[in-house]
C-alpha cells in the first residue's frame, strides 16, 4: 500500500499526523510530509483511518 498527498488540496490540519505520526509529519512551514510512502503492514489500518479522516480529502491510497 502506498499513501499520497495532494499538496494543492492539503491545508495541513494535521489530523493524519495525530492518527499516524509514524507516517505523516508537518514541516515548520506547515507542509505535510509523508515519512513512509510504502506503508508497512502493521500501520495500514492507522493510515486507512487517517485517509478517511482527512477533512479536505487530500490523501489517497494505492493498494
Automatic annotation (TrEMBL):
Pfam families: Fer4_13 (PF13370). It comes from the Bacteria. Keywords: 3Fe-4S, Electron transport, Iron, Iron-sulfur, Metal-binding, Transport. Its cofactor is [3Fe-4S] cluster. InterPro entries: Fe-S_cluster_ET. PANTHER family: FERREDOXIN. This is Ferredoxin. The lineage of its organism: Bacteria, Bacillati, Actinomycetota, Actinomycetes, Streptosporangiales.
